[in-house]
Amino acid sequence: MKTMLFTKYGDPNVLHLEELEKPSPKDNEIMVKIIITTVIIGDVMARRGVTRRNFNMPIILFPMVKLMFGLRKPKKNIQILGSEFGGEIESVGKNVEKFKPGDKVFGYRADKFGANSEYLCIPEKGLVTTMPDDMTYDQVVPAIYGTLESYLLLKDRVKSGMKVLNIGASGSIGGYGVQIAKYLGAEVTGICSTGKERYVKDLGADKVIDYKREDFFKSGETYDVVFDILGKNSFSRVKKILNKNGRYVCASFSTRKVSQMIFHKLIRKSKRIVCAMAMDSPEDINKVKDLIESGRVKAIIDKTFSLEQLPEAHAYVEEGHKKGSIIITI
User: Fold this and answer.
1) pLDDT attached to residue 13
2) Domain that includes residue 190, residue range
3) How confident is the model at residue 189 (pLDDT cuts 50, 70, 90)?
4) 64 CB-contact burial (10 Å; exposed 0-12 / middle 13-18 / buried 19+)
5) Interatomic CA distance for residues 88 and 106, integer angstroms
6) Apex CA 165: angle with CA 169 and CA 170, to 5°?
7) Strand, coil or helix: 73
8) What distances in angstroms separate CA 195 from CA 78, 122, 191, 211, 247, one per listed residue?
């Protein structure tokens, strides 16, 4: 089978095409013939390699993550990148009950990767489910990661009628966060860079602010939830635009932010920072399916590349100008 892999950390050119032996599913696995996959920021970060400079979690976790991915070079189990996928089941293990050959499925691999290949074997009980009826792969697969992460981060924190500020509203998670917050009944203001205003508006944002032209901290508006995927803003600054009992939700956070979260919770401050990680489970992929199938969330595609063009796709994502998802056809 054709696969795109990398055996050392570096720029997009470390990715190279190889022919590997076609895998066989274990007793509890399904083998999927991949039709499309994507490039998300997690793929780019894994390919670059985890360093202190680009590590956006508490530093105490750095050694563990570094060991998980590989110290000097990527471990063999992550050398094939790609987390979102859609395809058709070609064969199943003898103990598989949920799926059968011919089923069209989609799923998410998280940090297990492996979808930048013609075939992929995954556990039956993993983050995988059947495709919605009468929908194509490109209507579903690009929305998996952003929908899953933003839903898990917002579902217990956003209520109908709330005002939500989404910082990074044109990003991989932020863009779907706009749609999820609207689904949950919020009034959404999206923050993005110049040239992406129309895109964020089309996602459903009620208001859009270009942060290069306007300082949203000085707009006079206040919010119930400030959703900041990269967590680059200081809590002391964000507090000024939070309503009473408001929450600053960060998916990437420093040791300082974790300390602030614990401190404000202990002394029962009304305005709090929430350092949250989306802990997904197999059941969550079916929620993603429901949201996409019902039209609550729509996939937005920027560009499409072939598997052989994966280095170009990575380079494009690194430029930081994409509007929507990057599709890889196998």
Assistant:
1) 97
2) 145-275
3) very high
4) exposed
5) 9
6) 5
7) coil
8) 35, 39, 12, 11, 29
Within a domain: 258: yes
Confidence band of 323 (pLDDT split at 50, 70, 90): confident
Residue 292 lies inside a defined structural domain of this protein: no
* Residues pairing with 189 in the sheet: 165, 207
For residues 259 and 188, membership in a common domain is answered with yes
Half-sphere exposure of 287 (CA within 13 A, CB side): 16
- C-alpha distance across the termini of the chain, in Å: 11
pLDDT digits (tens, 9 = 90+) for 208-233: 999 999 999 998 999 999 999 888 88
Cut 0.70: pTM above it? yes
**Are residues 152 and 96 located together in one domain of the fold?**
no
269 and 175: one domain?
yes
Q: Is 319 left (phi over 0), alpha (psi -120 to 50) or beta?
A: alpha
Mean pLDDT across the stretch 292-296? Answer: 95
Q: For 267-288, what is each residue's pLDDT tens digit?
A: 878 899 988 777 788 889 999 9
Residue 5's DSSP bridge partners are 16
Number of structural domains found in the chain: 2
Element holding 42 (H helix, E strand): helix 41-48
- What is the mean predicted confidence (pLDDT) over 242-256? 89
**From CA 158, how far away is CA 184, in angstroms rounded?**
7
Confirm whether 294 is domain-assigned.
no
CATH of the domain at 104: 3.90.180.10
Q: Is residue 281 part of a domain?
A: no
Distance CA 21, CA 241 (A): 55
Residues 152 and 271 both lie in one domain: yes
SS3 47: helix
The CATH number of whichever domain residue 210 belongs to comes to: 3.40.50.720
What pairs with residue 329 in β-bridges?
A: 36, 306
Residues 153 and 231 in one domain: yes
